[in-house]
Task: structure prediction
Amino acid sequence: MRRLEDYGRRAVRQALRRGTLVLHLGPFAMQLKADSRALLAFLLSMYGACHATLEAGVLADFSLHVRAPNMIRRFVRRQITPDPGFYFPTVPLPRPMAPLALEMGMNLAVALQCFRFAIYHAGVVADERGAIAISAFSGGGKSTLTAALMEEGFRLLSDEFAIMGLDEPGLYPYPRPVSLKNASVEIVRAFAGAEEMSTTLTGTPKGDIGYRRARPHELEMMHEPAMPKLLLFPQFSLDAEPRAEKVEPGDAVMRFIAGSPNYHALGEAAFGSLMAFADSVAAYDLHYGNTADSIALVKDLWREHGS
Amino acid sequence: MSRSFLQIAVGLAPLPTGERLVRFIGWGRRAHILGQLATVWEERADGKLAEILANARIWAGHDRRMLSYEMNRITRALMGTDIYPVLLKGGAYVAKALTAGEGRRVSDIDILVKEDELDRVEASLKDAGWVADEGTSGDYDQQYYRAWMHELPPLRHKSRRTVVDVHHRLTPRTARLKVDHEAMFAAARPTADSALKVFNPTDRFIHAAIHICADGAFETPERSLIELFYLFADLSEAEAEGLRARAAEVGALWPVDHALWAISWFFANKRARSLCREGMFAKAFAAPVRWAIRAKVAGGLRAKAAMLLLYPRSHLLRMPIGMLTVHLFRKAVRSLSGSQAN
Amino acid sequence: MAAGPNRKTWRWRANPRHYRCHVLGDVTFVYNHLSGDTHMLNLVSIALLNLMAERTFTLDELAAAFPAHMDVSADECPPGVVWRLFDELDEVGLVERSGGA
Result:
C-alpha cells in the first residue's frame, strides 16, 4: 500500500475534501474528511509515512469529519470541531487549530467506537524484550516519558492508548504522533530534534501543544504486537527524589480499568486479557523531578523485568 | 436504494462490493444496525468488513448482556411478591433468543404489569435501587406520565445507570387506539430462567406493530422494519393465518395492517402481501402514511417532511387534540425557561 | 438490596457457573458472566462466596457457619457482619436464591 507522502499534495487535498482519504494505521482504517489548509499541512507532515488510500470504495473502521460547528462558523470567526459521527460534546476551536481537532477526533473515534480491542488510557513503547505501558492514571508525564523512551532504543506503539487483545494480553501498535503539552514540547524538541516536531499550536484550551512524529520503522512494525512486561504510573513533581515503588497488582488493575473507555462493554474476553496482563507485568509508581531521572529509573526496572 | 439495502441487511439479497459496499456499511452505521448486519454477514465476510462486523457484534453483545442482567435484577427486586411482569420488545427477544434480538442495540428495558400492581412494583424497584430518572423527576413530568401515559416515569438504577420503563397499558389512556392489553397479558407465557413472562409470538408481533406504527417508534425506521421482518418470519403458518383475527380481537388491526404492508413492500414478502390483500384497508387514509414511511426510509430532505407528517400523527394517536396543544405548549415553555436559566 | 423478611426460609447459594475468579496477590478478581462486571473481592468476601458455592444456606445458617469456615470465633464475626457481606454479593448478583422465586 502507498504512503501518504507518495501521493501529490493536490490529490491528498482533493481526497480529504471529498472524504475518501483513509489512513491505514495499525489495526484501524480511519476515513477523514476536512477542508482545512492547516489540517492538510499537518497531515502531510506528521502522517507522511503512514499507509493511505485516496480512492472511494475503501472500507474504514471509523470516519471523522473535521468541520465548522455550524454554517455561521464557516464564515464568521471561523471555527472547527471534530465530528466522529456520533454526538459528543466538544469545544469548537479556531480554524488554525484544526490539527488539534483532528487528533482529538481520532482519539474519540477509537475510544468510543472500538470494541475489537480493550482500550486503556496509556502510552506504550517496546523493544525486542517486550512492552512498557505508561498509564495516564496519575496525570503526570505519560507522553513526555513515552517520547523520551523513543530516544532510548524503544519503538513507539502508541502515545494515547494501550490497545489490548481480547483473551490475550498482546499490545497492538497504533503509532500516531505523540501529543505534548506546554513545557514538554521544548523538552522533547531538545532531544528528538526540531525536524521531528510539528508546528506548536499556542493558546489552545489545553495550553501550548506540539506533536512528535512517529518514525518510519515504527510504522513498518505497526502490525507487530508486543507482550507487556512493565506497567508504570509516572508521577512527575518538581525536585522530587527519583524512586520507584512497587504497586500491588490488584491496585494496578483497578487503576488501569479506571482509564478504560470500553472495558465494561467487552465482557469476559477483556477480563481474560486483563488478568493475563496483570500476571505478566510488574507495576510501579515512578516519582521523579526531571526526564533524565525518569529514564534512569525505567532502565533499572527494565534490566530487572525486561526478559 | 434503502429498500434494496434493507433486503441485503436481512440476507435476502447478496452483499454488494466496492463503493456500494462502503455506502451500505455507512447506511448501516448511521441507522445503528451494524450489529444486525453482523449476525447475517459476519461469517461470510473477510478483511476489514469482517473486522467492522466483529466490532459491531461485540458492542451489541454488551446490550444483550445488559438486558439479561436487568431481567435478573428485576426478578430479584420482585422476589417475594406474586408479581410476574411481561417483558416487552428487546427484553423478550433476548429472553426467547429470537433473531429479532440478535445484534440489536438497546438502551432501556420495558416491562408490562397490571395496573393494580403498579404501586407495589414501583416500591419494590425503588427499594432495590431504582430512582426517578433526572430528566423526568420534576413534578410536571411525573404528573404528566402518571395522568396520561401508559407507563411510569422512567426509573434509572442508581449504580448501574440502566433504565426500566414500567408499562401498565400498551397505549396511553388517551389514545384513540384502544388495545386490549389484558387479553394479551392473559395469553403471556413464563420464561425459563426468570420470574418474567413474554407474549406469545402472535401478540409479540402485534405489540411491535403497535409500538412502531402507532406509537412514534418510526423515528428509527430501518431498525424497526428489520425487527418486524424477523418477528413475522418467526410466526408459524398457523400463527400467520391467525394474525389479523387476533389483531382485530385485541383492537390493533390497523397498525398490524400497516406493518404487514411495510414488510411486503420493503422485503418483497409474499406471505405478508397475501395477508395484506385480505385487509379491508382504507386506501385514501393509508396512502399519505405509506408515502411518509417510504420517504422516511429513503432519507434526506423528504424524510424531514415525512417526519412532520408522522410525528404529530404519532402524538395525535396518543392524545386528543386539546391535550396535545397544552402538552406541546408546556414543553415549549419549559425549554425556553430552561435555556434562559443557562 | 434488602434481603427481605424471609431470612428464616429462603435458601441462597453462589453458582460457580455464573462467575470466573482470578487471584492477584491478596485479592481475587471475579468476573460475573450475568452482569459482565468485574469485582475485586478481599479475602473475607471471596471466602463467603466460596462457602456459598459449596451448598445452600438460609441467612441464619450462613451467619452460624461462616465464623467456623474462617476459623474465628462467633464474637469476632457476628451475624451483622456476615449479612452485610452477603448483601454486597447479593447487590452485584453473585449469589442467587435457590429453589426458584
Summary: DSSP finds 16 helices and seven strands in chain B.
